[in-house]
């Protein structure tokens, strides 16, 4: 059965402020699995201090700032449920992804369940374009997260269609089962890399 693309399923577009409020209404109350699928290889993290330090070329300080943010990051995890994140990766890693994987390894140490899957494993699933950026609350609803031209989050489409939610839950959970443990991947493939080369350093 062909899985319906989220953009083809009726939904409600929520600008960033409304998306954040709607999301938080259920995020900390869900007692079960929450799925997150990340496909794009670069985003814009705005004013995140560690992200800004990496972009400025200070990799050592960037990693220090991640550790200093442990309490803030821990508070961003669900209070009751289990967040399972599938991070799709292409190699060589973008500067963003090299940075984010360190962040995700820290989130895993704090309780998130993350796995990594190489984009080469997606053959057949991306005939109509890259997989979407999704957050799925199984049995409830899902968010098709949207980004602007810079890669900054611009809100999300909330989709309540039960069949679409069930279909994408099955897709993400199946891909997750094929993924590699994220902390192990980071230790083996990411930690040994030299600091990422940023636009600031290229100029």
From TrEMBL:
Residue ranges annotated for the DUF6879 domain, each copy included: 22-186
Highest taxon of source: Bacteria
InterPro entries the record matches: DUF6879 (IPR049244)
Protein name as catalogued: DUF6879 domain-containing protein
Annotated source species: Microbispora hainanensis
């Amino acid at each position: 059965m062909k899985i319906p693309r989220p953009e083809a399923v009726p939904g409600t577009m929520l600008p960033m402020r409304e998306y954040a409020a709607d999301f938080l209404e259920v995020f900390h109350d869900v007692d079960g699995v929450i799925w997150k699928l990340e496909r794009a290889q670069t985003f814009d993290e705005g004013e995140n201090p560690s992200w800004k330090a990496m972009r400025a070329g200070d990799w050592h300080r960037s990693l220090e700032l991640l550790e200093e943010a442990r309490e803030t990051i821990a508070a961003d995890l669900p209070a009751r449920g289990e967040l399972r994140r599938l991070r799709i990766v292409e190699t060589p890693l973008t500067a963003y992804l090299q940075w984010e994987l360190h962040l995700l390894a820290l989130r895993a140490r704090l309780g998130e369940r993350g796995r990594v899957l190489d984009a080469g494993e997606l053959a057949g699933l991306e005939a109509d374009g890259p997989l979407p950026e999704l957050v799925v609350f199984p049995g409830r609803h899902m968010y098709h997260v949207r980004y602007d031209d810079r890669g900054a989050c611009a809100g999300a489409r909330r989709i309540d269609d039960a069949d679409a939610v069930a279909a994408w839950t099955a897709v993400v959970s199946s891909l997750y089962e094929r993924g590699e443990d994220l902390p192990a991947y980071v230790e083996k493939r990411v930690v040994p890399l030299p600091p990422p080369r940023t636009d600031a350093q290229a100029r």
